[in-house]
Amino acid sequence: MEKKDNALLALLLDSVDGLSEKSYQSFITSYRTAEELIASAGECDKIFLQAAGKMAAYLKLRFTRERLNEAIAALSDKAIKFVAPCEEEFPKSLVNPNGCPRILYYKGDLAALSTPMIGVVGTRQCSSAGVAAAAAFARRFAESGVTVISGMADGIDSAAHRAAIDAGGRTVGVLGHGLEHVYPPGNFSLYRETTATGGLLLTEKRPDLAPKPWFFPERNRIIAGLCRAVVVIEAKAKSGAIITAERARDCGVPVFVLPGSVLSQAAEGSNRYLAENPGSIALSPENVLQAVGISAAASCSRVNEAAADHPEGEDAAIIAAIRQGFVTFDELLAALKTDAARLNEKLGMLVILGVIRKTAGNEYHI
Amino acid sequence: MLARVKSYGLTGIAGYPVTAEVDISHGMSGVSVVGLGDAAVREAKSRIHPAIENSGYKFPFAKIVVSLAPADVKKEGSQYDLPMALGILSASGYIEDGRLQEFAVLGELGLNGEVRPVQGVLPLIISAEQAGFKRFLLPAQNAREAGFAEGIEAYAVATLREAAEFLQGSRTLTPVAKSTFSSRGHAPCDTDFKYVRGQAAAKRAIEIAVSGGHNLLLIGPPGAGKTMLAKCIPGIMPDLSYREALEVTKIHSVAGILDGSEGIVLSRPFRTPHHSASAPALTGGGKNSRPGEISLAHNGVLFLDELPEYSRHALETLRQPLEDGVITVARANQTVEYPARFMLVASMNPCPCGNFGSKTHACKCTQNEMRKYLGKLSAPLLDRIDLHVEADSVEYADLHAESEAECSLRIRERVNRARERQRQRYASCGILCNDEIHGSLLKKYCSLGADAERLLSRAFDTLKLSARAYTRILKVARTIADMAEEEHILPSHIAEAVQYRTLDRKYWEAG
């Protein structure tokens, strides 16, 4: 892919470590193309010395044509692409004077960014209820044509990505490290599935940068900047999810927070956020979709069978019982006064038709 | 003087003829035993000397050489005591050689001349009979066991003197009476399904598993009663047929755990090795060529409580026997094959802390811990387990429920009926239950109607089942149909069978 020279400038500038914001700004304003910078650095002229300051000797050796070619080759080797703020495709919502990423590296389809996106974020040490909620929200969003964006971390993030993919939707993962790395390592297959299903992996970190604890809060601002709404499923007292929520609120992006159990540590931070911002309670996926002006898919794709729409006889009784809160097998058995074989068979049928789902703990949910 | 006595040795559960040759000659007095005997064989000379003296015979004061032929096969155990002693008596002129040649002799000796029982009598006699041996001289305490062998004439002796007199012709013995087999029915079981409250789903799954001989995995939080459920299984196991009982008895006899007073195994074995069990403890083999737990569970149940706690290596060794029904143990100088067709019942927690999916307790496991825990169970192993079922955590109210659940005896009657249907159907195929269906039989006996086929393909779509679940579902559905006394597999049977593939459905990833 032929890149415009001004995009290459961003790549060249990003290829060096330790460039302060101030000197970055002076470089990006002083030069228009990578060519200009290389020539100027080679001659060590006034503009270069002024912009580089004390680092001139160091930078002179790094802003060379060889270095630039190396960086381009390294990217194409690993099928990593990049987009610079000066380019057309760069997401407009990220362009702002404070904290605009210097460059974005990505794998997958950049077009995913032009679809409506909702962030589903939360803690890594989540409860099973949190995982179920994240999956339920993400699934509903995906079914309504919304791209689910999250941070590709363990716990809530992964559950949301996974559910979106499973529901046939797109998902965008914003990483806190370079694309050569997989973190957490167990998410390797999730990475692959994300890009294989029309989704996108996005990061501002150079491909070779390994994850560092302070990278993750930084990437949260990108999630906040890209989505139309952020849903916090569960957040601990000091959670990155709350940072995402605050950054989103600062950008004017609506934040929705799920109330969690007061007994659960996993929901401490999200509950506190709710206490401070009572208006941001998330009641249902539809409630969130409505707030951002997206119409929820009329009929959920799972429930489109005649049997599901108009259940009769025992099926109707089972669905009614589940709605009443008899969710485990034994509870259903007691409520419906049938025998185990018959109930199992009926439940199996409803599960296959996609009317109900079986979840951990032998529970059935609509 | 030279004497020869025929005996029999065992490798695995097959026998081979051994001849004890005794030569008494002039020279320095003493006994030497050759023929690659283990410690028990080498020590025999110290038992034989007092046994002969205490039986009223004179031990020859001469150079005695005992050779166990074939000389290049290792001999194990104490069953050569009696042949060697009779050989010495024969060589010293007490017994006539001709009559001695008619018998194959087995038995251990006590210092007072009594004949003690030995291990592996039934498999030994059966393979000796196939090799042409018809008459046997055995320890009295092995008589009942020997009575189950067909087409032989066995004589039981309690002392060395009795044996010698019988061979001299001065004492008459009647051949061992044929033992008659009647299955005891259910295995001894201290618990009954009627004491298990709730757990309807798990009980149903267990009934299906036992009816079709399927492998079963119980998943549930600690205290849900997984172990109790499993321990009720012996109470509903189907009757043991004579043929199956003989197979089991052979193995138990070799392992030395057979009850001599019964002489045969009367009910299906239920083995519960602890999770510290090593791979050889499960598979068998080792220095003394013992059958392992999986062979002892042949035709019965192998229960592995807390499955992920077993060493990964030990679990992986189960894969081949689960598929083939036999385990081949290669030892340094020989390869031994033991039958190992068992029903695997395993239990595990859903996560290391055990509370994943619980309504009352929060799971504190990180995703990595979960992954590590579940990673111990390889996909190929899980693939061989037909039914995955979750046991709910029991609530206090359930424990105090008034109603009593169905008792094991009634469940057992249904299981027996379902097994009988399978036995009749597969009479010509050489298999006994649905779990053993394979290859072409699957097409023949598990064909689906158009409705059922459509439902199954729909299930694969909705539930994202893995391809390997396919045959498992068909077999389980076949059993469910048998339990319902249906000729064909109906969609409803498929619907229920699909319920037992929890682990194929990315259960632990997203609720």
Record keyword descriptors for this entry.
heterodimer, A: 366 residues, alpha/beta, two-stranded antiparallel ribbon, elongated, B: 511 residues, five-stranded parallel β-sheet, four-stranded mixed β-sheet, 18 strands, 17% strand, disordered C terminus
In short:
The complex is a heterodimer of chains A (366) and B (511). Chain A has 366 residues and is an alpha/beta fold.
Q: Residue share in helices of chain B? A: 25-40%
Counted by DSSP, the helix tally of chain A is: 17
Q: What are the segments of chain A in which pLDDT stays under 50 over at least 5 consecutive residues?
A: 298-307
Q: How does the overall form of chain B come out from the CA principal axes?
A: elongated
Strand content of chain B: 15-25%
> In what range is the share of β-strand residues of chain A?
5-15%
What is the residue-averaged pLDDT of chain A? 87
Radius of gyration of chain B: 27 Å
- Strand tally of chain B is 18
The greatest interface here is: A-B, 45 and 49 residues
Secondary structure: number of strands of chain A: 10
Q: Multimeric state of these chains? A: heterodimer
Main sheet characteristics of chain A: 8 strands, mixed
Q: Provide the succession of SSEs of chain A.
A: HHHHHHEEEHEHEHEHEHEHHHHHHEE
Q: Sketch the major β-sheet of chain B.
A: 5 strands, parallel
Structure classification of chain A: alpha/beta
- Overall geometric form of chain A: elongated
